[in-house]
Design brief:
Residues 26-140 form the SHSP domain. The chain has a domain at 33-76 and 89-129: Immunoglobulin-like. It is 13% helix and 32% strand. It is built from 2 helices and 7 strands; from the N terminus they run H-E-E-E-E-E-E-E-H. The chain has a 4-stranded antiparallel sheet, with no helix packed on it.
Length: 149
Amino acid sequence: MLMRSEPFTEVHRLAQQLFGAPTAGTWTHPSAMPADAYRNGDEFVIVFDLPGVDQDAIDISVERNVLTVRAERRPADLGERAQVTLSERPLGVFSRQMFLGESLDTERIQATYHNGVLALRIPVTEKAKPRKVAVGTAATHTDQKVLNS
């Protein structure tokens, strides 16, 4: 049997059920869908931790550069005889929205899910990539006359 040692855990759990979980997590009360994002060369990567979520319960959409990731963590089928003594893992539907910059090619997003981690890879558009600009020679004297006329 598990014993609780934190006196306000139950109050906090009830408040979360009543008012909803916070969208951004803290160390003591993490988000149900924590994420990391970074640029790696010519792609932007967003990684979500979704342990216990089935791959078919994940929905990803993009509309007007707004990325929406929706996932559902369903309760385990414990059988009729099971008596739950502790239930702290969040269940239900979780959703995150992120605004993507214009420099990302949202038509070519790739998503993979492995060991409870969802990884989205979004290519950077060609116009946003660094490029060389050729330097030409200065205008000749006759070209200057045409420009000044």
